[in-house]
Model the fold of this input.
Amino acid sequence: MKQQYVYGLAAFFAIVGISIFGYKWQVLGFPVSKDLQTPVWTIESSIGFDSGPGSIKVNLHIPTLTPGFRMLNENSVSRGYGFSLNYGSGGREAQWAIRRADGRQRIYYRISVYEDHKSDQSDTTPPFPPPPAINEPFRTAVEVIVADVKEQSADTASFTAELLRQMNDPSPGPNVELLLSNANTRAELVESITTILASARIPARMIHGFDLQGRSRSAAPITWLEVHDGDRWRYFDPITGEENLPERFLIWWRGNEPLVSVEGGSNVEVGFAVQENHLDAVAIAETQVAQQDAAMIDFSLYSLPIQTQAVYSVLLMIPIGALIMVVLRNMVGIDAFGTFMPVLIALAFRETQLLWGVILFTLLVTLGLSIRFLLERFRLLLVPRLSAVLIIVVILMLIISLVSHRLGMETGLSVALFPMVIIAMTIERMSVVWEERGAVDAMRAGFGSLIVAVTAYVFMGLSWLEHLLFTFPELLLVVLSVVLVLGRYTGYRLLELSRFKALTGS
Amino acid sequence: MFAVAKKLRAEGVLGLNERNADYIMRLNPRRFYPRVDDKALTKELATAVGMAVPELYGMITNQGEVRNFSGIIGERESFVVKPAQGSGGDGILVVTGRSSRRRDSFRLSSGMLISTEEISHHISNIVSGQYSLSGNPDKALIEYCVNFDPIFAEVSYQGVPDIRVIVYRGYPAMAMVRLPTRASDGKANLHQGAVGAGIDMSTGETLAGVLENEIVEEHPDTGALVAGLSIPHWDFILESAARCYEVTELGYLGVDMVIDRNLGALILEMNARPGLNIQIANCTGLSTRIARIDEIFTADATPTQRARLARREFSAERQTSLAFSR
Done:
């Protein structure tokens, strides 16, 4: 009955812990591994213009829907300008306005994005475009081309591909040649293609964006063709006719409108700079969660001040030490002083490093023990004797620090990190065991404590485990459930197998 | 590794974890612990129902009373000083006589001389709680020093050999005699190096002994055979152990008894967490016997009936042959 309660409770804790962990890992994107870094691109657009005499209004198209990317943050740098974000026909627009300005002006807009293949923001399904009004002789040329391409295609995608092939044919037909007579740039080419597609009642639009490759001080937007096949948007390279965007293509804006419009200014020039950084994946997940307004982030340890974080990253390892303790004592059966003394010693080892930790600990306990035996002769009462041992431990630590400093061994200084009260209690208990049960028992328990401490140190020092627990503190519930289950472990301890060896004789 | 565990399981060997979780926690309510952890209380309860215990000469409950020590012992030649809440035989002084030259100097069971001042210091250590389980202030008991029966003279090195009986739900389940050795410093505790010898429950005869988890035929110091000793008052011992269940209400209990040359079997102390080495000493597992007791358990059986049942059920025929086959 009780057994089932314990297992039920343990299962409950484990399920809650693992579910929260799974949600944070899979949905919120918290990284399970420490060194997980995500490349982050910062694209800076700078707008330069000469101010006119009157008020100035600058409109800049900025990224709205960016398949394959997520926005980390955005900001604008503009001295004295009022800044607002609006939704225009082509997506988001940044607007700066000022009553008057003198001389050459420069405005910056900066956005940071990171790759996220799952990011597939839904776009609206566009209505069928009305047939565009085209003047002769272009109208007939368009009609002929549409009819021709329709003959050689099956659906929207193949129609587009065939159209692009014909438009880019090195020896184009007369109709194509006529239509291309005005298209000198890639953007103009795409514009005429969208017109032809509109005549075929296929929704299509221009997209402009950047192929993000490392850093570039002057990037220019590249125009692509976007076609809706009634189900989703498809992307085509207007020159090669290739479908699908380059691997890292950030769509900056859509539509035929110019990137920037400046009212009351002249000599407008727009430049783009791309910078690639690597950001800690945790930071990205945090920002993302903050944007989604999830309450989860308020309870994340990363929201604590840095110093407190450092404390907690250590504190969170104590349950791991306790788990090791449970396993080594109840399943293996190692004898040790005190319930959690080895865990605290292991904590001190973190600071002193293992080898020095073991050396200093052994030195301290040995010296303390020998002085404790001298104290035995004075027949002190319990509390004064314990206090005397404590004071001696402190003095010994002081001497070890000073001597090692004189000898130029700075590691010796870290002896001060040992929990002195714990050491004093260890010395006292060890000396009592020594007196009462003999040196062998005392040494065995002392050695056992050291083994447990070293094992706990090894596990508590696993940096991936530390990261995991710090990012996902809910995993402590899993540790708790394991401890609860082990609390009902009634099987033999490992060392009991050899202890009762004599009984297996039959 | 798993094969060994399986074998032990088949033999019915009880492990520490199982003992703690399934028996001690279930059958021994914590509120009854003081009845066995505080030897003064044990003595009082046992005396109240007319059971035989070593006579209490006096009790020292605080530092101020330590100087009453001389008054308590008076002209007595032998006595035992022990902490009321000690564990594992720690802190016990067995004084067997006085120095022939100085009356205020005493001889310990080990033969060493100890001064009154040293005993007083020891008592004040006891009172300040050095030997108590919890570290709390304790009481020092000064009581009759058992004049042990010569039956064990050949197989013990100084100290007082005692008989440990495990009582499960009022039924004596297993027993052993613990024989002090030179290594155990005269103490009858197995983990301090005493020899344990299993006892055939039906006849009261000792089986082979165990020393540090290993089976031995002879006492390491005296060289005498450990097996085959017939323990006197065996019926009375089993019955007294069974009665301790009514006294303590603990379902998993270890009862320690000694046999005095003149007074017979006396209850020395009881233990709510008796060790498991008794299984090695008897070459048999406790779980098997516990399961058998669960089968024959009747709530209204008297201690006498329970002791008789134990004698009938737990004959060591099988274990004897096992011990000698080695």
